Amino acid sequence: MSVLTIEPLVPADREVWQQLFAGYNEFYGRTMPPEFFDHSWAEFSADERMHALGARFDGKLVGIAHFLTHASTTSADACYLQDLFTAPEARGRGAARALIAAVTDWATANKCGRVYWSTHESNNTARRLYDQVAENRGFILYTIPLP
């Protein structure tokens, strides 16, 4: 049986992390330039504004979670789980659930008032998990892309 661990990313994770993050972006129809990955990795390495955790089966990185906090007008700071992705071969084995739990633990330890995230309405596989671990309050997300 494989051992699942959730840990912060380390420099040796860079290559596999980038493959996973590219897979996440491809899922949403995006192709990102190399400098995008460089910027994100630098932010996660600094661990100040944006944070990252990795899910590992027997030491092999198979999932990632990226998150950040922001001020809230109606509660303590909020923790936004921006990106969550697991490698196809690791799906259905508890990595995503464990990553969500670890982000929730981090947010609790950092006195956040809530953890939240969004997903596309067609992402049925993920939504089955999300409906088990969180409350869908029915909000609709609107976006204005800027240059």
Q: Topology of this protein?
A:
Elements: E1 4-8, H1 14-27, H2 34-46, E2 50-57, E3 60-70, E4 78-86, H3 95-109, E5 114-116, H4 124-133
Parallel strand pairs: 4-5
Antiparallel strand pairs: 1-2, 2-3, 3-4
The radius of gyration computed from the alpha-carbon positions, rounded to a whole number of angstroms, is: 15 Å
The helix tally amounts to: 4
Strand tally, please?
A: 5
Q: In CATH terms, what is the fold-level topology?
A: Aminopeptidase
Tell me the strand percentage band. Answer: 15-25%
Give the name of the CATH superfamily.
Gcn5-related N-acetyltransferase (GNAT)
What is the CATH level 1 assignment? Alpha Beta
Please tell me what the overall shape is: globular
Let me know the largest β-sheet.
5 strands, mixed
What keyword list fits this structure?
five-stranded mixed beta sheet, Aminopeptidase, Acyl_CoA_acyltransferase, alpha+beta, globular, 147 residues, transferase, Bact_Acetyltransf
Question: Your description of this structure?
Answer:
This protein is of the alpha+beta class. The chain has one domain (4-133): Aminopeptidase (3-Layer(aba) Sandwich), CATH 3.40.630.30. The chain has helices at residues 14-27, 34-46, 95-109, 124-133; strands at 4-8, 50-57, 60-70, 78-86, 114-116. Helix 3 links the parallel strand 4 and strand 5. The longest helix has 15 residues, at 95-109. It starts with a strand and ends in a 14-residue tail after the last helix. The model has no long low-confidence stretch (mean pLDDT 96). Residues 4-147 form the N-acetyltransferase domain. Pfam families: Acetyltransf_1. This is GNAT family N-acetyltransferase. Keywords: Acyltransferase, Transferase.
